[in-house]
Every structure is written in C-alpha cells, then in structure tokens.
Amino acid sequence: MSSANSTILNTISPSLCGKFRNPNFKTLIPQSRIPIYSKCRLNHTPTISFYNIPASLKLRSSKIRASGDSTGETGNWLNQFSSGALAADKIFRLISGATASPIAQFISSPTTFLHSVDPRIKLIWLLVLVVLPARSHIIMRFGLVVYIALLSIWILPRQVWMDQLGRVSLLSGILFIMLGLGADSAPPLVQPRTPPPAMMGLPNLPVSLEGYSYLIMKLGPLKFTRKGLSVASTAACLTFTIFQSASLCLATTTPEQLAFALRWFMLPLRCIGVPVSEITLTLLLSLRFINLVFDEVRNVALGIVSRRINWEQLTIMETIDIFASYIRRIFKNIFNHAEQISQAMIVRGFRGDSNSHKIYFLSGSSIGMADFISVLCLIGVVGGAFLSDYFLV
Asked: Which ranges does the record mark as transmembrane (predicted)?
C-alpha cells in the first residue's frame, strides 16, 4: 500500500514527493510572505480609565436634607420612628403591663356591699343585663351603660376600674362607629321598580310635620341613619354591659360562690339526667385556672423584659424564635399547673365521680339587707325597660 501511494505522488509531482513524506513548516510557507507575517502585530485591547473621563461626564451626587425649621438643620424626626428591635421590646412590655391589673379575678379588698350580695341574685342580674339591651329602648340601653359604669367606679379600686372601663369603652366605641356608618352606607343591589305615586295618579306622601329625617349625618360616601344608630347602639351597649357586668361579678364573687349559685339553679335538671355535679366542678376549676393563665403570661413576659435583650443585634428569625419560645413556655407552665391540680385532687380522694366527692363551696345562704336592695333595683330596672317601650316612642 505504501509503494502504491509513493507511485501516485511521484506521478503527480515528483519534486514534492519528499516534502509530503517529511513535511516542514518553513518549506510549506512561501519565503516571500514570511516578512509579512513577521511584521503583523496584534494590537492590545483598548481600555477606558476612570481617571481619564472628562469632568462633564462624571455623575453628580446630590443630598436632600429634611429640616423642621428655616435654619436648614435636620431635626430629630428620625428618632420618632420605632425600629423592629424596639417594637419587640414594646410588645413584651405591653403584655406585662396589660395583665398587671386583675382581669376576671376576685378582689377581696376593699370590701363593698356588692361582696355581700347573694351570688344567685348576681347571676339573675347577669341574665337580665344580657337580655335588656337588645329588647329595650335606646335611652334605656345608654342608661344601663351609665349605671354599670358608675357602679364600677364605686365598687372597684381606682387602678382597676380605669383600666377596665378604658378597654371596654374603646372596644364598644369602635364597634359603634363601624356599625353606625356601615349599616346603610353600601347601596342596595336591587333597585325598587315601583313607579312614583305621581305616575299612577296618586297623591304624594305627606311630609312629616315634626321634621322627621331618616338620615342623621353624612360623611362623604358614609351615612349615619336611624337604622345604623339602632344597630350600633344595640351592639355597643350589649358589648359593654356583658363585659363589664361579668367583670364586676367575678371581682366581687369567689369561684366557690359562683359554683354554688350555678349548682342551685341547675339542681332541677337532675331529673332529666343532666350531670350537674360535673358541670359545677368544671366551672369551679375553670374559674380557678383563669388566674393562673394571666399570671403565667405576665411572668414569662416580665422574665424576657428583665433580661434586657439587645434586640438590635438579632435578626428577624431570631426574634421570631424568641416569640415562639415565649408561647411554648406559657403552654408548658400551664400544663404543669394542670398536672399539679390533678395530682392534688387525686391526693384529696377524687376518683372521677363528682357525685360521691364532697365539694365545699364556702357560701352562706343568709339573706341580708344588700340582697333586698339588689332585688328592688332589679325589679325597677326590668319595669323601666318594659315601660320605656310604651312611653318612649
């Protein structure tokens, strides 16, 4: 095969046969072109130096300063904005401060006449205060609110009633504004198709001589009408009376007395198989457990605040982890208290049967002068609510 290739090369170009067998780079390139390739030189890539840019092309930076006066000095308005680090500390301080005052807890001192009222009469009062705001006249509703507010100021300590009335009033006020302005503000989706009386040959409706107006006030697209006033007053007064009357009852009545009153009212239900003893025991434990929950929420929050954590050096995930640890610690402590209560009940002989276990309610059944006054006031309030429907139209 090699001899055949050699024969072909000799036939084509005998003079180049040796060159193809032993190729040489210098012999393949013509000598006349070597100086041309040797003189070729690649230029370097052009670069732009920042320092050689003309001054007219350089970027100009401008500063904007906010000042509170004409002197041009910046004030401390940036300090008014709270950062995320300070917000976490404020949340824990608010939690520890919000639970500082007793909420749904018995206040033993100072002792008032409401402490000596029979708990059964107090439960009747609570039932009446739930029903009356929804069924009575608007003047009667606001009268009940004023009555409960004055009674709270008289009975509760100053720090307690200021805290409770402030929160309940704020909640009721927000509810009143939202329902009052939102009852008739949205236009109806279905428009009435009844033609006006003039088109049917009927006289127009007479204008009220007393100046009756369905629309009370209008704020742009929002309307405050008589329907909104009725709905808002009912909801706000009902919210205020329920929360504040329950707080008054719990502040002046021990859990044992409330359990005794509930058991006294539910005794006839034993005939139909209602577990009265279990319900009473559950209520008693629940009322005792409320204080522990608020104490744990406050104590754990105070523990975090007292450690003076540098919130500015924490990331968002670390802050969230602290809040998660706070919630876990609360539930862990609450479950520990529940276990201790169950062990204490087992030690005292409780085996799960509420009927055979003796419960001491520590409540006297004597009727005093405070009870008669409470019953008379109750009859007066109920009678005034019924008479208001006939005389206050």
From this structure: 123-156, 168-186, 229-253, 359-387
pLDDT digits (tens, 9 = 90+) for 282-309: 888 888 888 888 888 888 888 888 888 8
The whole-angstrom separation of Cα 228 and Cα 176 is: 9
Report pTM.
0.65
- Alpha helices (H) along the chain: 2-12, 17-21, 25-28, 34-39, 84-98, 119-135, 138-155, 158-182, 226-252, 255-266, 276-306, 316-347, 369-391
How much is the pLDDT for 362? 57
Q: Contact at 8 Å (CB) between 177 and 260?
A: no
Tokens representing residue 64 in the block:
């904007």
C-beta neighbour count of 327 within 10 angstroms? 11
Structure letter (DSSP) for residue 354: T
End-to-end CA gap in the chain: 129
Structure tokens at 299: 């104590």
Whether the link from the prior residue into 110 is cis, omega within 30° of 0, is yes
CB burial of 234-257 (b: ≥16 within 10 Å; e: otherwise) equals bbbbbbbbebbbebbbbbbbbbbb
Q: Give the span between the Cα atoms of 62 and 75, in whole angstroms.
A: 20
3-state helix, strand, coil in the chain (%, to 5): 65, 5, 30
Q: CA 92 to CA 98: how far, in whole Å?
A: 10
**Element (H or E) spanning 284, and its range?**
helix 276-306
Residue 125 CB contacts under 8 Å (≥ 6 apart), including other chains: 245, 249, 374, 378
pLDDT by 10-residue block (mean), the chain, 393 residues? 45 44 45 44 46 48 46 44 61 73 76 87 91 86 92 88 89 91 70 70 63 76 85 92 91 88 89 86 85 85 84 85 90 90 84 71 68 90 83 69
Under a CB-based contact definition with an 8 Å cutoff, are residues 80 and 88 in contact?
no
The reported pLDDT for the residue numbered 13 is 45
- Spatial separation of the C-alpha atoms in residues 11 and 140, rounded to whole Å: 131
Q: Report the distance separating Cα 197 and Cα 359, nearest Å.
A: 73
Residue 276 · residue 269 · CB < 8 Å: yes
Measured N-to-C along each axis, helices 119-135 and 138-155 cross at an angle, to the nearest 10 degrees, of: 150
Q: Which residues contact 106 (CB under 8 A, 6 or more apart)?
A: 250, 251, 252, 253, 254, 255
At residue 187, what are phi and psi to the nearest 5 degrees? -70, 150
Q: State how far the alpha carbon of 160 is from the alpha carbons of 112, 247, 285, in Å.
A: 15, 10, 24
